């Protein structure tokens, strides 16, 4: 790519008349270098295409190709795959770069008015555009065959952004289109990274990444800060040019602000001959009416209003004052922020264009010292090993399950026992230290520690419960990927997520039941809660609730069952088929005596009219249902009770 980029740039400059004409009609050193680069680049590209065409995923990896080919190419098209990866990997600069590329096609600010040809900087611009396009072309060509790959052109894109900033510093006109467009594109990318946070791992060129759920909330907060800081500073920088004079003193600024607000109000009253202002007044009257209707409907229990989701009802009751307040205060706040930025630039005596690299610096600082370290703590075993070092006592050995032994040796400073099989790891954990030849340095009966990959935790917990009747002690459960377990809690709380769904103590559900599936699984009862965990006596359509069903295991469960929830009545049915505990703790791992809690989120459709509906629960596998051998039932469905809809 570099050689071909240099060669093509030489051709463009040579054929455009920008290349300086030699005093004598003979090739210059630049011609020789450009021609050699072109030949080298074409030869390398031809060889690469030939190797790619003659290679397959089943054949040995060709060293000349430099990438491993996939047997099953990605489903996405080349365009979607590569642009999506770059957009998310380069966030937030990916929101600025498309506009920076467009600014490259303007003549350099210092060269405007030049009589003929392009100067040296124009040649640099051509080289950046050509080489960046080639880098992206190679990236897109290999993506369908090799999946996510590192992009070779970040330095070129950084240079493009730097030239756009440099032009603004040298007097190029500002761009409101860039300010608004960059903010909108940054918001779109931010929404992508919040709704699908695993896309942030595109920066590491990872295929099918797994993002820790426990980090999603903090990740959204970090990305929100990056969005506000970057988009805000870029918009302030590019929206206007720095005025020659600013207000001297707070009073002068307040007088001008008052004049601007009055002028804006007068202009609003003149738009469309005053019809826009009249339309806003009519809209405000309608919002007052809607708010009053919802308020009264909530108080008297009007069915339509009662079934309205809480967030929509809150919007309806508060829109009448929130929207006018936003329209009145919003412009004042924006003007104040703009004037504060003007003041800082003037007092600091720095170019206004400095706001763009400052935006990148703030965003980069947040990503480098907040987002990615916190994400690494979720994915890396480092913090788990640090917890072990702080909690252990002399003579207490450590082993790993599902974690690479090389990582353990790196963080632990020496070799540790490593297992890939849960039964072997459990046997080591449950044995006394005196029995293990590998632990001859440990004291007899010493506490043992195990670093466990989260995928292995359910199996290990089942083995531990079978022998000890309680959940496996987890002393560090902060990461959703790797946890620190032991054979003793040592007076500390159990941080295992399984302790919330596999209970050690009996429970008293709000709605007790006496029912049994095939003498294997007893249904203890159920309860209904809202999103805040409060008991709910009734439900409202289109609102989320949690149906918590409690079971006690009497015998090992035979069969691979899924659970269903039916809410029947008035010729309507809610059908809630789901894997118990979201499939994270399979029924095959349940041990006799276990008390299991299944938490199923349900939301009724809006066509559920007020009334009492029958609640049924059961299990199915294909067309078969788990047989009900005790308790009220209908078609092998346990009749659990009544749910009131209002």
UniProtKB/TrEMBL annotation:
* Keywords per UniProt: Membrane, Transmembrane, Transmembrane helix
Query: Is the Membrane keyword given for this protein?
Result: yes
Report the superkingdom from the record.
Answer: Bacteria
**Membrane-spanning segments:** 34-53, 122-142, 219-239, 276-300, 320-341, 353-372
Name this polypeptide is given? Uncharacterized protein
The record lists the organism as Sorangium cellulosum
């Amino acid at each position: 790519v570099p050689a071909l980029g240099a060669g093509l740039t030489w051709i463009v400059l040579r054929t455009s008349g920008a290349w300086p004409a030699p005093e004598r009609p003979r090739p210059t050193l630049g011609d020789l270098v450009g021609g050699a680069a072109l030949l080298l680049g074409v030869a390398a590209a031809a060889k690469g295409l030939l190797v790619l065409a003659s290679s397959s995923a089943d054949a040995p990896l060709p060293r000349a190709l430099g990438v491993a080919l996939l047997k099953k190419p990605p489903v996405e098209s080349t365009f979607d795959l590569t642009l999506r990866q770059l957009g998310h990997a380069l966030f937030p600069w990916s929101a600025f770069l498309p506009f920076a590329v467009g600014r490259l096609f303007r003549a350099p600010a210092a060269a405007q008015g030049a009589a003929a040809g392009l100067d040296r900087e124009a040649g640099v611009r051509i080289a950046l555009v050509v080489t960046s396009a080639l880098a992206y072309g190679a990236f897109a060509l290999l993506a369908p065959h090799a999946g996510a790959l590192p992009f070779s052109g970040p330095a070129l894109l950084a240079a493009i952004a730097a030239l756009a900033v440099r032009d603004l510093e040298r007097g190029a006109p500002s761009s409101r289109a860039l300010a608004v467009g960059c903010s909108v594109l940054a918001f779109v990318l931010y929404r992508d990274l919040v709704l699908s946070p695993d896309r942030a791992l595109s920066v590491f060129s990872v295929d099918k990444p797994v993002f820790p759920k426990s980090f999603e909330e903090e990740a959204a907060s970090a990305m929100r800060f990056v969005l506000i800081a970057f988009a805000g500073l870029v918009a302030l920088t590019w929206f206007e040019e720095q005025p020659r004079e600013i207000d001297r003193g707070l009073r002068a600024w307040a007088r001008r602000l008052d004049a601007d607000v009055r002028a804006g109000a007068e202009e609003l009253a003149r738009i469309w001959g005053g019809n826009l202002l009249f339309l806003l007044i009519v809209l405000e009257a309608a919002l007052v009416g809607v708010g009053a209707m919802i308020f009264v409907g909530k108080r008297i229990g009007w069915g339509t209003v009662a079934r309205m989701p809480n967030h929509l009802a809150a919007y309806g009751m508060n829109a009448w004052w929130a929207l006018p307040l936003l329209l009145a205060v919003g412009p004042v706040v924006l003007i104040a922020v703009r004037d504060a930025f003007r003041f800082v630039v003037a007092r600091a005596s720095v170019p206004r264009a400095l706001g763009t690299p400052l935006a990148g610096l703030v965003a980069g600082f947040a990503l480098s010292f907040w987002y990615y370290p916190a994400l690494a703590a979720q994915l890396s075993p480092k913090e788990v090993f640090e917890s072990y070092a702080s909690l252990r006592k002399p003579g207490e050995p450590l082993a790993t399950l599902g974690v690479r032994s090389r990582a353990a040796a790196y963080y632990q400073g020496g070799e540790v026992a490593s297992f890939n099989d849960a039964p072997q790891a459990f046997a080591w954990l449950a044995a006394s230290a005196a029995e293990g030849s590998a632990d001859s340095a440990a004291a007899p009966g010493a506490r043992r520690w195990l670093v466990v990959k989260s995928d292995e935790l359910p199996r290990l917990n089942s083995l531990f419960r079978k022998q000890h009747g309680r959940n496996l002690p987890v002393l560090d459960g902060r990461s959703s990927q790797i946890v620190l377990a032991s054979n003793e809690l040592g007076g500390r709380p159990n941080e295992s997520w399984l302790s919330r769904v596999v209970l050690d103590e009996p429970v008293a559900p709000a709605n007790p039941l006496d029912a049994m599936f095939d003498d294997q699984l007893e249904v203890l009862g159920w309860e209904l809660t809202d999103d805040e965990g409060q008991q709910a006596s009734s439900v409202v359509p289109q609102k989320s609730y949690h149906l918590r069903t409690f079971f006690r295991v009497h015998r090992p469960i035979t069969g691979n069952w899924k659970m269903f929830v039916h809410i029947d009545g008035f010729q309507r049915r809610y059908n809630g088929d789901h894997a118990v505990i979201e499939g994270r703790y399979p029924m095959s791992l349940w041990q006799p005596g276990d008390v299991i809690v299944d938490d199923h989120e349900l939301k009724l459709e809006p066509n559920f009219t007020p009334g009492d509906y029958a609640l049924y629960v059961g299990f199915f596998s294909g067309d078969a249902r788990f047989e009900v051998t005790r308790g009220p039932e209908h078609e092998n469905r346990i009749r659990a009770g009544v749910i009131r809809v209002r």
